[in-house]
Amino acid sequence: MAAPAGLRATMGLDPGLRTGVKVPWWMAPASWLRPTPFIRIPVRRQKAAVAVAALCEKHNVELVAIGNGTASRETERFFLDLQKQFPKVTAQKVIVSEAGASVYSASELAAQEFPDLDVSLRGAVSIARRLQDPLAELVKIDPKIHWRGPVPA
């Protein structure tokens, strides 16, 4: 587990092939901005790059947390290409473990924290917050899911 990044302006990218990449803006532990889902297909790739670059510049994003699940490499490549195209986007990208994010996003606690947010976007917010304070996020997940193999009784 890495040290907490702290209260730095953070963008979360939750990769996905079928649903596209979910983009929640997580600025500090008590504040987040409206999530922006987008799809990384060639037709919309440029439009998505322009939108993400504009948000990075507008909110002075310092860190980009990319979930390590399905399509994470493609999402990482997308962000690196975006940085070449938009040199003002200087945020540092970090690959973040998605372990348990889907369990958390469907939990009662997540529903209480984000009652108006879709389940898939709750997981994306969790990925962004894991970069800021990993332990604070991991304690929200049932410990049984962290075990590999059978859970001891």
From TrEMBL:
Per the record, the domain of life is Bacteria
Q: Where is the YqgF/RNase H-like domain?
A: 8-105
**Which is one Gene Ontology cellular component term of this protein?**
cytosol
Q: Which residues form a coiled coil?
A: none
Alphabetical GO biological process terms: nucleobase-containing compound metabolic process; translation
**GO molecular function terms attached to this record:** mRNA binding; structural constituent of ribosome
PANTHER family in the record, alphabetically? Answer: 30S RIBOSOMAL PROTEIN S1, S1 RNA-BINDING DOMAIN-CONTAINING PROTEIN 1
Annotated protein name in UniProt: YqgF/RNase H-like domain-containing protein
Q: Which organism is it from?
A: Leclercia adecarboxylata
